[in-house]
Amino acid sequence: MINLQQGDCLELMKNIPDESVDMVLTDPPYGMAFQSRYRTSMYEKIKGDQNLDWLDDFVEEIFRVSKNNTAHYMFCSYHHIDIFKQAIQKRFNVKNIITWVKNNTSMGDLKGDFAPKTEFIIFFQKGRRLINGKRDSNVFEYNKTRNELHPTQKPVDMVEYMLSKFSDEGGVILDPFMGSGTTGVAATNLDRSFIGYEIDEDYFKIAEQRISEAQL
Fold this sequence. Notes:
Blueprint: E1 2-6, H1 9-12, E2 23-26, H2 55-65, E3 70-76, H3 81-88, E4 93-101, E5 118-126, E6 139-141, H4 156-166, E7 172-175, H5 182-189, E8 193-198, H6 201-214
Parallel strand pairs: 1-8, 2-3, 2-7, 4-6, 7-8
Antiparallel strand pairs: 3-5, 4-5
């Protein structure tokens, strides 16, 4: 089952029944008005990234739709990781902060700061979901994408790994901030059902095409 819709996820999620989702895996706006410096001529600022006023309502909604004893992931930046963590732990059990070590460094202050090479993923559960297979480290080492399709595009192989550890075939995966559709591609590759929402029309079309090709 693949269900893709363009629009505001806070409105669209109202149509999801209570306790029907096996995992939320998403990369939301970080509340920092991000614009890629590497491809400024290619990408506009991310929609909804001006503030985090939506975050508490979003956490309430993903809690409502999530089944009991399920595990979830949310990407975030160090800039507001404290705000994300505090919002999530109002409803969920925050189990870990995963560090993703990328194969290259970001820009930032070239002469007044260390070169950033990491990103963070909040791992949280509703109840307790046991891991599939062996227990691995909370440090992920995966190559960064070249962001050809989206300014914060994530690697499919890493998302597949994340899905495989805490969801099963046939499970329902929700990504309310779908972007270019990486979570949907990974879910399709692993025989999971997928619900994906994206507010930006251009990114939605890219995601729709990528996920359709993954189904072939």
